[in-house]
Each structure stands twice: as structure tokens, then as C-alpha cells.
């Protein structure tokens, strides 16, 4: 069973030095990826600390980009807690 996080917990990780985001109800710690992101750090910082599924899908990330998420995976959004941030 994966670890569960609330939207509020994800929202606490909102700085370049500590940045999480949600994509498809999965929580990722993308802190180490900020400097490597091909689209620049600004977009990650702007979309970080919340559900970034829409913007992630809108860009049309490649299968390789989706595979990269695996190493940043922390757990899932707690399904018993509703609310968007």
C-alpha cells in the first residue's frame, strides 16, 4: 500500500528547495528535477505544490517524461479527502 497525502500536505512543499506536485492523483517530490526540467524551472515552481495534472497533460509530455516520474513518486492523494488546491 502506498503512502497517502492530503492536498494540504502537498501544499506545504511549495519552494524551489522543497517542491512536490500531484499528477493523476499521485504525489511526486520534484525538488531534484527543478534544475533538469527542459521547460525551465519557472513552470515547475508555478505549478508545484498542487494538482498539476491539467498543465502536465496540456503540454503533451512524452512517454519518456512520464517514465521519469517514477523515481520522484512519493505516494497517492488520499481518496477520502476531497478538495483542490
Automatic annotation (TrEMBL):
Membrane topology: Single-pass membrane protein
Family annotation (Pfam families): Cyt-b5
Domain of life: Eukaryota
InterPro entries (UniProt xref): Cyt_B5-like_heme/steroid-bd (IPR001199), Cyt_B5-like_heme/steroid_sf (IPR036400), Cyt_B5_heme-BS (IPR018506), Cytochrome_b5 (IPR050668)
Keyword Phosphoprotein carried by entry: no
Main location: endoplasmic reticulum
Gene3D superfamilies xref list: Cytochrome b5-like heme/steroid binding domain
GO cellular component, one term: endoplasmic reticulum membrane
Protein localization: Endoplasmic reticulum membrane; Microsome membrane
Domain Cytochrome b5 heme-binding: 2-78
Keyword tRNA-binding listed: no
Keyword line: Electron transport, Endoplasmic reticulum, Heme, Iron, Membrane, Metal-binding, Microsome, Transmembrane, Transmembrane helix, Transport
GO MF assignments: heme binding; metal ion binding
Family: Belongs to the cytochrome b5 family.
Protein name (database record): Cytochrome b5-like heme/steroid binding domain-containing protein
